[in-house]
Amino acid sequence: MNRRAVRLKGLVRFEFRAPRSDQTLLAAARPVTIGHQTFGVIVVAKPKTVLNQRWLALIERLLLAFAGGVAVAAGFAWYLSRRITSPVLALSRAADEVAGGQYDIDVPKVPGGGEIGQLAARFHQMAARLAEAEQLERNFLMTVSHELRTPLTAIRGHVEALREGVVTDEEMRTASLIVIAAEAERLERLVGDVLDLAKLGAHRFTVLHEEVEMERLVERAYVAFSEEARRRGIDYRQTVAAKPVIVSDGDRVLQIISNLLSNAFRWTPDGGRIELELSATDGTVYVAIDDSGPGIPPVERERIFRPFWSRDGGGTGLGLAIARELAAALGGRIRLETSSERGSRFELVLPTRPE
Question: Quick one: average pLDDT of 211-230?
C-alpha cells in the first residue's frame, strides 16, 4: 500500500495477501488527519471469501423477497381479476337475458363503484328503459286498436243502416252522415299523429317557412275549444298582449297549440279554469296555456313527453310528444311549470324567424 496515495486520495480500496497465509484480503485504507497534519492510516481488511459468502446470503435473501413479491403480486392480480371479471361476466349474462327479451333482471352490484360500477348502473337504467318501452308499446297497440275499433264500429253501423234502408227519414240520414264524417275525421287524426311521430323520429319532416299572424292563429285554436268549455262550465279565457308576425309553419304551430289545449281540457275538471295567452319580447314569441288541473308529479314531468305514455292509461299518449318534437323542429321548445295547488302551465317558445 502506498501511504502517499492514501494521503492524496483520502480513501483507497485494494487487495493483498497476508504473510504466511493463502487468503486474499479486501481492504480499505483512510488517513488519520488532524488539521493539516497526518498521523497515520487506518486499514480495515476482511477475507475475500467471507465477503463473497455475505454477498451470496444477500442474493439468496433478495431472491426470496423477489419470490414473495411475485406471489403477493400474483395473488393481488388474481383478486383484482376476479373483482373485475366477475361483474363483467354477470353483466354479460344479463345482456344475454335482455337480448332474449327478459328485462326484469338483477344487475350485479359492484362494490366500490368505479368504471365497472358505472357500467352496471347504466346497464340497469338501460334494462329499465327497455322494459318501459316494451310496456309502452303494448299499451300503445292496445290503445290504438281500441281507438281504431270504436270509430270503425260506429261507421260500420251507420253504413249498414243506410245501405239496408233502415234509416228512411232525411233528418236521420243527415245525422248518420254527420256521425260517419266525424268518426272518419277522428280516424284520420289518429293515423296522422302516428305518421307525424314516425316522420319526426326519422328526421324526414318538412317544415314550411311562411308569414304567420300569431293573433289569428291563436284565435283559431281558442275558438276550436270554445264549445267544450261552454258545455263543461270551464272558465275559458284568451289574453293577447302582442300581435307578432313570425316566419314559420303555421299549420304545425296551430297543431302544437291545439295539442297543448287538448291536454289542458283533458285534465281540467268541469267548472275549472283554462287561459290561453299570447305575448312576445325581443324576437321571441310565447304562447302559454294555464289550467287548474291536478298538476304533474316531479317523476312524471319528463315522461309525459314520451310517445305512447299516458298518465291514466287513456288516449294514445302522442299529443305532448308530437308537440315537443314539432316545437324543436320549428326551432323552439316547450316549457312546463306545474304544482298541485296552481295546476300546470305549458308555454310554447318560438323564434320570430328561423335560424
Answer: 93
Place of cell 297543431: 255
| CATH code for residues 210-351 | 3.30.565.10
For 231-272, how does the pLDDT look when each residue is reduced to its tens digit (9 = 90+)?
999 999 999 999 999 999 998 899 899 999 999 999 999 999
What is the CATH number that goes with domain 114-201?
1.10.287.130
> Residue 108: helix, strand or coil by DSSP?
coil
Q: Long-range contacts of range 106-113, CB-CB < 8 Å, 24 or more positions apart?
A: none
Domain spanning 1-94, CATH class: alpha beta
The tally of CA atoms less than 13 A away on the side-chain side of residue 241 is 11
CA distance 215 to 10: 104
Q: Which residues on neighbouring strands pair with residue 336, listed in sequence order? A: 346
Which DSSP category does 354 fall into? -
Contact criterion met (CB below 8 Å) for 296 and 336: yes
129-162 pLDDT per residue, tens:
777 777 766 766 666 666 677 778 888 888 888 8
DSSP character at residue 304: G
**CB distance 280 to 347 below 8 Å:** no
Contact assessment for residue 251 and residue 221, using Cβ atoms and an 8 Å cutoff:
no
Cβ atoms of residues 344 and 296 within 8 Å: yes
- Which cell numbers hold the place of 143? 290503445
The domains of the chain are located at 1-94, 114-201, 210-351
Residue type, 257: I
The whole-chain average pLDDT of the chain stands at 79
3-state secondary structure of 7: helix
Q: What is the DSSP letter of 335?
A: E
